[in-house]
Design goal:
The complex is a heterodimer of chains A (202) and B (260). Chain A is an alpha+beta fold and 202 residues long. Chain A has nine helices and five strands, in the order αααααααβββββαα. Chain A has helices spanning 2-5, 9-29, 34-52, 58-72, 75-83, 86-89, 92-113, 173-187, 192-199, and strands spanning 121-130, 133-141, 148-155, 162-168, 171-172. The termini of chain A are far apart. Chain B is globular. In chain B, helix 3 (42-70) packs across helix 10 (184-204), helix 4 crosses helix 10 and helix 12 (219-236) runs antiparallel to helix 13 (241-248). Chain B has a two-stranded antiparallel ribbon with strand order 1-2. The longest helix of chain B has 29 residues, at 42-70. Classes of the chains: A alpha+beta (202), B mainly alpha (260). At the A-B interface, helix 5, strand 4, strand 5 and helix 8 of A face helix 12 and helix 13 of B.
């Protein structure tokens, strides 16, 4: 007992440091709150709903969705994750080129699908903290379809509050993108430069 | 309830055989890799996938498109409703086997409402009055009983599945209460209605199906990923497992070793 109380100065100092680290950790994680994450997706969803119900032509809607995507999604992080292991050995210039090409590719690919949302709506129902990020839960009501579960993973680690993943009925966009980009890269013998060039035309 | 129990005892030989097959499949299950995918028969699966894709391109896709454009929307909906109603007795049987009395009651009520107010299942009257469908299957029953997912398999014609779900599909077809209760001709008609409903689904989700099968760089890997993730989500829903399932699919690109 006496021993336990007899802390050396160094141990005391280390204890304080550890204590401060522990105090600092939740604070860093709390920089973004559940409410803020939810508010962000509320806003994004309101923008999506506004575009869907604007009555504009599909072609006029695509660029609007693209802008929305660049604003609310952490495209750089999504791109890095999609490139997978290859991102480790890619040069800075390659990463920059890939991210740019990938953003265009992604906007075209998902922009085409946004037409399915016309006449529908998305409702945010809940939000919660998971590990190091937040999950905002929403339900999508599309015409002639049973409502489905749509989740948004939100983080502020890019420096901005942005979402980095979308989960549709359990299907994870990041995982699907990593599979797709991995296959495209394999088809090109692992040549990132060729992938970048080709992504612009896909 | 009265429907299923005598049928199970009448066909108990087949039923026991089915369960034995399931357990056998589960026994040689193995464990999924770091990516959550357990696919030791990938080479075989890929050739089946090639066959399925060819079948869709040559036959199923065009037939679905024809069905979608030739048959008026309300008729398509009726076909879908009848097919769904035909599935309800099987759903109730599985609900009971899962000891899920709540869903068993809801599905039984759905059956009653659709057969009466819904004019013999032509209309989905129960969804309209706030009783949405709670579809289930024997694969889910096996999951509830603690049988693991097993290896990933792509079945000819049927498509993506797992050892457990493949066994479930066999049991659902062989022991389907409606098929067993109806005379041969009517049972055949029921099967035809279900096939047409499937064509309707293929047409309704054409954009999604086409994007996976024909627009992705590796349609096999995409279909596998989609099936496994969606199936795990379905099975995790409503229970304690929901959070755990989400954790399995957890990706944090900010902490990702690949991303650094």
């Amino acid at each position: 007992m006496a021993n336990d109380l007899n802390l050396s100065r160094r141990a005391f100092g280390a204890g304080i440091a550890a204590g401060l680290t522990v105090l600092a950790l939740p604070r860093a994680a709390a920089a973004l709150t559940v409410d803020q994450a939810r508010a962000l997706i509320d806003k994004a969803v309101a923008d999506v709903n506004r575009i869907i119900s604007s009555g504009k032509s599909q072609n006029a809607m695509y660029p609007e969705f693209e802008k929305l995507f660049a604003r609310y999604a952490d495209v750089a992080t999504i791109a890095r994750s999609a490139l997978g292991v290859a991102a480790r050995s890619a040069s800075k210039a390659q990463m920059a080129g890939f991210t740019k090409a990938y953003q265009g590719y992604l906007s075209r690919k998902y922009g085409r699908r946004f037409r399915e949302f016309i006449g529908g709506k998305i409702e945010v129902t809940d939000a919660r903290a998971i590990k190091t990020y937040y999950e905002v839960i929403s339900t999508a009501y599309l015409q002639g379809e049973a409502p489905f579960d749509l989740r948004w993973h939100v983080s502020d680690k890019s420096g901005k509050q942005q979402f980095f993943n979308i989960i549709i009925e359990g299907v994870n966009m990041l995982a699907s993108e990593r599979t797709e980009i991995g296959a495209l890269l394999d088809q090109r013998g692992g040549d990132v430069d060729r992938l970048i060039a080709d992504l612009k035309t896909l | 309830m009265g429907l299923t129990i005598p049928l199970i005892s009448r066909k108990s030989g087949k039923f026991v055989a089915g369960v034995a097959v399931c357990l056998l499949l589960a026994a040689c299950a193995g464990t999924p890799g770091a990516d959550g995918i357990n696919d030791p028969y990938e080479a075989t699966n890929r050739s089946v996938h090639g066959f399925n894709r060819g079948l869709d391109r040559a036959l199923v896709g065009p037939a679905a498109k024809g069905f979608g454009s030739a048959v008026p929307q309300p008729v398509q909906r009726v076909v879908g409703n009848v097919a769904d109603t035909l599935d309800i007795p099987g759903d109730v049987a599985n609900d009971l086997l899962q000891f899920n009395l709540g869903d068993a009651a809801q599905n039984t009520l759905r059956l009653a409402v659709n057969l009466t107010m819904g004019v013999g299942g032509l209309f989905d009257a129960s969804t309209a009055i706030g009783l949405p469908g709670k579809p289930t299957d024997f694969g889910e029953t096996l999951h509830v009983w603690g049988v693991g997912e097993g290896v990933y398999v792509e079945l000819p014609v049927v498509g993506p599945s797992t050892a457990r779900d493949a066994a479930g599909t066999v049991v659902d077809v062989v022991l389907n209460p409606v098929r067993l209760a109806l005379p041969k001709k009517e049972a055949m008609a029921a099967t035809v209605v279900k096939l047409f409903a499937r064509l309707g689904d293929r047409d309704r989700y054409a954009e999604t199906v086409d994007s996976i099968l024909y627009e992705s760089a590796d349609s096999y890997a995409q279909a596998r990923l989609l099936y496994l993730q969606n199936r795990r989500f379905e099975l995790g829903q409503g229970g304690e497992a929901a959070g755990a399932a989400a954790d399995d699919d957890f990706i944090d690109p900010y902490e990702d070793p690949y991303g650094q």
